[in-house]
Design a protein that fits this description.
- By secondary structure, this protein is mainly alpha-helical.
- The protein has one domain: Orthogonal Bundle (Helix Hairpins), CATH 1.10.287.
- The chain is about 75% helix and about 5% strand.
- Helix 2 runs antiparallel to helix 3 and helix 3 runs antiparallel to helix 5.
Length: about 160
């Protein structure tokens, strides 16, 4: 009670932090499982290299899409149910706008036509950091796996 009197936004900070941590943890878990599945698929004996690469990249793209939707849901929850902030600018409250702000934030494009306020900014800031990390993880894993394939198949025309 005394903490609330001294700092009335303390609960909002804690709520935003816990929500962001939960979404980020789920994102990392989803990404780990997607990479594990891609790794299993690449080691599986069925299919050629091109098929494995295309399906692997598609699976990673699907994982990124799920992660973006997860953050969009978190922003929706933070804005509409937890009253942690708002979205201003060209925002009409549709699911498309929640998805849009999540995509441009996750990919760190940041057009600026929709601007988060309050503690929704915290969630969006960590979404950008998480998105960069997940994209780097995907890219580094893909390069790592392709290096192995290129070493094995470099002289093979049947790739």
């Amino acid at each position: 009670m005394l903490g609330q009197q001294l700092n009335p936004g303390a609960n909002d900070v804690l709520t935003a932090t816990l929500l962001t941590a939960a979404i980020t943890a789920l994102t990392i878990l989803i990404h780990y499982e997607a990479l594990r599945l891609v790794h299993w698929w690449h080691d599986y004996r069925w299919g050629g290299l091109r098929t494995k690469v295309v399906l692997g990249v598609f699976l990673l793209f699907a994982a990124h899409s799920i992660e973006i939707w997860l953050f969009a849901g978190g922003i929706y929850l933070a804005k509409n149910h937890l009253s942690l902030g708002d979205l201003e600018g060209a925002f009409d409250g549709s699911w498309r706008d929640y998805l849009y702000i999540s995509v441009v934030t996750y990919a760190s494009v940041g057009y600026g036509d929709i601007r988060p306020t309050g503690f929704v900014r915290t969630i969006c800031g960590f979404e950008a950091l998480t998105g960069i990390m997940m994209m780097a993880w995907s890219a580094s894993y893909t390069v790592f796996r392709l290096q192995n394939f290129w070493m094995v198949y470099r002289d093979d025309d049947e790739v």
